[in-house]
Amino acid sequence: MDLGLKGKVALVAAASQGLGRAAALELAREGARVAICSRREDAIKRSAEEISSTTGSEVLPIVADVTNAEDTARFVQTAADHFGALHIVVTNAGGPPAGNFEDFGDEDWRKAWELSFLSTARLIREALPHLRRARWGRIITITSVSVKQPIDGLILSNGVRPGVVGLVRTLATQLAPEQITVNNVAPGYTMTDRQRQLYEARMQREGLSLDEVTAEIRSATPMGRLGQPEEVAAAIAFLASERASYITGQTLTVDGGRSRGLL
Question: Is pTM beyond 0.90 here?
């Protein structure tokens, strides 16, 4: 299937590893030119070189922290200036730490809000004028299956991430007349560095071994395994494509059937 992404310009945040890197790689494979960012210069340059050598697409590495307003504005403007346009935005910023309600104070909640919500709103706000000039746009947030079904021990994520879904659904209605779609991708348990950190937190909290944690997750997932980053990236690339032109305001769950809700 031709996704119609050849020559399009994509912006992918937090793409030195994990789901961000997988999304950038998949978009580049489809022929998009990609700008990526990370807080670490060595990591983002290495990621850009690997993606470019694998796909043949141009990849622009930018050092930026998406929880910082100035960095976010510079990331978007540098990419737009370099490529001359912007068509696709993939927001991504990892997730807040694991824990229960009693574990966190006001500062923890503020940091979680800045990381999981405000970074998304800022990136969209900075990119939107460029999408409007292009008269074509795709905005995809990488959130979590916790927006559909709260996850035990992730109170910060459960509390903050649903706000992104509300933002996306509102923007989808506002931007649809301009041919700009806005959607969420909600990964379930996927084998990333973030997932490994959550495993370690649960192991310490509940006194479980790694085998016990992963066995429980596999048994509760109908497909019997964890997801791979490239499987989430494929969903992102589809939502970024010409083929997804009539899909907006949706939350696409990529979790092997684990979440059981009807909506």
Answer: yes
